[in-house]
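FIELD: query
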Amino acid sequence: MPKSDPLEDVMMSIMETRLLRLNRLIGTKTLSDFGEFHSIDPTYLSQLRNKTRPFGEKAARQIELSIGLDIGYLDTTE
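FIELD: result
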């Protein structure tokens, strides 16, 4: 069985945390409503949620700034 790369495991964990936090923020709103309110393209949000676009550092910071969250908010579990 191949060993997992610890750095890759951490990065996947961070991306999963970002996705979880984003989904909590969106809640029961449609992506269109959420995106329009925060000036974020709903297609972009859909790509992040469906993992067809990586939810990296740049994406996380741009969303935090658009929503008015503290930098790093999407990376925390609290």
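FIELD: remark
The mean pLDDT is 90.
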